[in-house]
Amino acid sequence: MVSKKQKFLTVILVIVLAIVIVGGVFGISYMKGDVTFPWQLVETEAKREEVKEPAKEQKELKVTVKEPKSTEQDKEVAKEEPKEEKEQEPVKEPAALTDGDSTGITLDYYGALHVEDGALVDNTGKAVQLTGVSSHGLSWFPEYVTADSIKSLRDNWGINVIRLAMYTSDYNGYCVGGQDIKDTLKENIDEAVKAATDNDMYVIIDWHILNDSNPNEYKSDAIQFFGEMVRKYEDNENVIYEICNEPNGDTTWEDIKAYANEVIPVIRNVNKDALILVGTPKWSSDLDSVLDDPLEFDNIMYTYHFYAGSHKSSARNALTNALEEGLPVFISEYGFVSADGDGAVDSKEAAKWQEVIDEYQLSSCIWNLSNKAEGSALIASDCDKTADLQYDDLSEQGQYFFDMLKDNTKQTKSNTEKRR
Ligand code: IDC
User: Which intervals carry biased composition (Basic and acidic residues) (predicted)?
Assistant: First the structure.
């Protein structure tokens, strides 16, 4: 016989077993995350929103960084945001500008420049040496003076100056091409000055007279042009004004002096400290005439140009004589090829010129940043790239210059160490 009590205990046991089995199955499912209680639904939605948010930010961030013509405000935002991006998830840097071959150096930026005792110095009186490139004519090859190209010169070559050769009379020159050409040239200059400033580089605005042998021919244009430039770049301590490239033909130092005495005050009235370069007779090679009768302004340097394939020891002597006399000289244009801008590198003469540049710590710009099919172009004529160049993209002179930058820096460093 089964007692009432036993029946009752059996029922209880069955109920307890059922609870244990159901509870166990439910517990395992809960652990696996298959069960969501109604009160958890609100929380889950909130979490999903949190996950979505950063993705939205990343998308916007990429747009901001890629935008080339960002305003100052945009730039600040762009500067701040990458930090956040890195914390969330490492994303590849936007289109790198440092993919080209590199000299591995970065030449110094010195701030405002002055001329003291025939030499270029910074605010503390420390010697300054600028080393860089000259553009070809801005109307011919504007694609090499863009923000990307200039940034890459700084990142890959390490140089600290670019000269903007704006022809006045040759091919679509400033004084002969009409208003549209004038406007375009000024836009090119503006982009280049901004890029140079952004990359801690000096920039020379070069009034590139050539077939108009005498700077007085377009003097009134020059006065108007430099007046406009100096107002625009009054606060840019990195802008250098070259008021005439290469006077030639029968232009005398007296002619140049008369021109300089009118143009220099136009610049100095706005920026009393601007560094100004003045061309010299005979394609900027006659320093003797200047020594006899220099200009009466401060912060002036006279230009001397050489092409190693054509100009040799007598030209070097003329330069070193003037330097020994204390004349401030800036090599605003030179080449290791012939004076017609073509031919092969004369490496024997080039090395001798380089010794003079090193010994006197001269500032210089090599002619020219383009891929024109001529020996002086730094880029091979079959290369269309305007930034991030590989060594193979360079011409013979381009490779020679690139190697020289590397070697020279080693040399300068070891000299500095020796002096300590
Ligand atoms: C040359 C260019 C060449 C261009 C020519 C225009 O290399 O492509 O067709 O000008 O006349 C200078 C001048 C510079 C010359 C350069 C080479 O300042 O404008 O460039 N040179 O001839 N002085 C000495 C040499």
Answer: 48-92
Question: Position 311: which residue type?
Answer: H
> Which pLDDT tens digit goes with each residue over 143-192?
999 999 999 999 999 999 999 999 999 999 999 999 999 999 999 999 99
What the block records as the tokens of 183 is: 């406007």
Asked if residues 134 and 284 have their Cβ atoms less than 8 Å apart, the reply is no
Q: Are strands 119-121 and 114-116 parallel, antiparallel or unpaired?
A: antiparallel
53 is catalytic: no
Catalytic residue among 333, 359, 374, 396: 333
Main-chain dihedrals φ then ψ at residue 304, nearest 5 degrees: -130, 130
Residue of 376, 378, 395, 397 to mutate, ligand 1, most atoms within 8 A of C-beta: 376
Sorted by sequence, the CB contacts under 8 Å of residue 120 that are 6+ apart come out as 113, 114, 127, 128, 129, 130, 275, 301, 328, 330, 363
The β-bridge partners of 114 are 121
CA atoms within 13 A on the CB side of 237: 10
Nearest-angstrom CA–CA distance, 168 and 215: 10
Phi and psi dihedrals of 278, rounded to 5?
Answer: -120, 130
* Amino acid at the residue 199: N
Q: Identify the residues whose C-beta falls under 6 Å from ligand 1.
A: 170, 210, 245-246, 283, 305, 307, 333, 339-341, 367-368, 372, 374, 376
pLDDT in tens, 288-337: 999 999 999 999 999 999 999 999 999 999 999 999 999 999 999 999 99
For residue 99, the Cα-to-chain-centroid distance in whole angstroms is 15
Q: Whose CA is nearest to atom 19 of ligand 1?
A: 210
Contact indicator for 329, 357 with CB cutoff of 8 Å = no
> In this predicted model, what pLDDT tens digit does every residue of 204-261 receive, in sequence order?
999 999 999 999 999 999 999 999 999 999 999 999 999 999 999 999 999 999 999 9
The model's pTM is 0.78
Distance, first Cα to last Cα, the chain? 114
Measured CA to CA, the distance from residue 411 to residue 420 in angstroms comes to 15
- Whole-number percent of the chain with pLDDT over 70: 75
Name which residue leads in pLDDT, 365 or 15.
365
- Reference 279, options 311, 298, 255; nearest CA is 255
